[in-house]
Task: structure prediction
Amino acid sequence: MFGKISRLKLISIEVILFICAILFFVPFYFVIVNSFKGLDEVLTNTAALPQYITFENFIIVWGQLDFLRVIMNTIIITLFSNIGVIIISSMAAYWLVRKPSKFTSIIFILFVSSMVIPFQSIMIPIVQVMREIGLMNTHLGLIVTYIGLACSFSTFLFHGFIRSIPEEIEEAAMIDGCSRLAVFWRIIFPMLTPIISTVLILNTFWFWNDFQVQLVLLHSSELHTIQLAINSLFGEHVMRWELALPALMMGTLPAVIVFLFLQRYIIAGVSSGAVKG
Result:
């Protein structure tokens, strides 16, 4: 009796998850299908498969948006932002874990508390600071901003993961003459691969797909990322769906590829960083 009830619950959960998966993939279906249509067909037969598959939209988008340039801008910002976040957050978390005190506890609480602060509430101060130090409308200014915004959550994940690493490993290395810094880079950092992959993929999706921070800090078209470039296809009176949808598809593809390569680390990293911590 209980076995049948458990089986029915399992089937019900699977059906619900299957329906949720379908609903989740519906927007992707519309983007992919309509990327290969002309404007007339996009407006009249939105949900239907394309009658004639055309790649002309992709060619136009590539040239009109200077796609190679905006993709390179996005890659540079995402790459260096991730490098900065991983280095700073991992070292900060290691110090907070291995140097327990009231001071480090307060610092960790501040890290965790800053996770709930919305960007809108600090947007104006960030713009003023970037303007004062000469980093407004530069890739470096955007990278520094992303590092500052992402360090709190990343440090939280690293903190939980490092707590699960036995301290005896470090003590043995320090007896052999390793400094604390050498222990971190030679022993601890290589052991952080699962959580590094988790932090990397979560932040990559954020940096790659973000629009608001980039819109506030980048004004020159030469510095635009893929998201800002796609936004140029949407005007007050004209919405070029036949070009915007292929651009969205092309812009999303690199982030999806990164996810496919690193997806096996996500669950392990999040569970180690959040549960064990």
Remarks:
- The chain has one domain: 66-274.
- The first helix runs from residue 2 to 34.
- DSSP finds 14 helices and no strands in the chain.
